[in-house]
């Protein structure tokens, strides 16, 4: 148990049956009041981000999440199948829980699976992934005053904007936080 004012970004805690990750914390102290901690948190079960306020002295139970490196094997329809590299155990995660993440997964990708007391909470992707362009418009000369971009579809089905000089069949680096082009891989 720790005081709410001791929380830092990246800490995990439970409250009212929910598991939260601290995104940001703001401590506010005025002359007439106790210190108030405004904590921006992400609910790891629902994915929603909310802000909670607690007075100084409020005790919170911090927790540790289990993290394991696992390899993405395949998409089985309703589930995505991952394998533990050490024990060769396979787990299935509902595809609906990984809507954003599945856009960056191709075969044999290594990801970090987070869980708490056996309950799988989600996966952590690397900051950038290398994906091959399967469909790309040909470059068209025209407005080059601004950054000239064109549409491209990647091997996972993700659609992104790439510079005009990128062609079909090339491998590009894509950021997993906002699905944007980051350069050639």
CATH level 3 topology of the largest domain? SH3 type barrels
Q: Rounded to an integer, what's the Rg over CA atoms?
A: 21 Å
* Poorly predicted spans: none
Portion in strands = over 45%
Q: Averaging pLDDT over every residue, what do you get? A: 84
The total number of structural domains is 3
Assembly state: single chain
Which descriptor suits the 3D outline? Answer: flat
Find the count of extended strands (DSSP E, 2+ residues): 16
- Across the major sheet, the strand order is 1-6-2-3-4-5
Give structural attributes.
185 residues; mainly beta; OB fold (Dihydrolipoamide Acetyltransferase, E2P); 3 domains; flat
Kindly describe this structure:
It is a single chain. The protein has 185 residues and is mainly β. The protein folds into 3 domains: 62 residues, SH3 type barrels (Roll); 59 residues, Nucleic acid-binding proteins (OB fold (Dihydrolipoamide Acetyltransferase, E2P), Beta Barrel); 57 residues, OB fold (Dihydrolipoamide Acetyltransferase, E2P) (Beta Barrel). It has no helices and 16 strands. The strands form 3 sheets. Strands 1-6-2-3-4-5 form a 6-stranded antiparallel β-sheet, with no helix packed on it. A 5-stranded antiparallel β-sheet has the order 9-8-7-10-11, with no helix packed on it. A 5-stranded antiparallel β-sheet has the order 14-13-12-15-16, with no helix packed on it. Strand 7 and strand 8 form a beta hairpin.
């Amino acid at each position: 148990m720790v005081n709410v004012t001791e929380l830092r970004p990246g800490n995990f805690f439970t409250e009212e049956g929910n598991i939260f990750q601290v995104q940001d914390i703001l401590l506010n102290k005025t002359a007439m009041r106790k210190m108030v901690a405004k904590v921006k948190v992400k609910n790891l079960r629902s994915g929603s981000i909310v802000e909670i306020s607690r007075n100084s002295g409020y005790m919170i139970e911090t927790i540790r999440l289990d993290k394991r490196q696992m390899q993405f094997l395949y998409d089985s329809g309703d589930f995505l199948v991952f394998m533990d590299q050490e024990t060769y155990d396979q787990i299935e995660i509902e595809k609906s829980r990984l809507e954003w993440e599945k856009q960056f997964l191709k075969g044999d990708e290594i990801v970090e699976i987070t869980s708490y007391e056996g309950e799988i909470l989600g996966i952590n992707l690397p900051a950038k992934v290398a994906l091959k362009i399967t469909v790309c418009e040909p470059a068209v000369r025209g407005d080059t005053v601004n950054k000239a971009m064109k549409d491209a579809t990647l091997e996972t089905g993700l659609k992104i904007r790439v510079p005009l000089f990128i062609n079909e069949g090339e491998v590009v680096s894509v950021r997993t936080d906002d699905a944007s082009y980051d350069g050639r891989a």
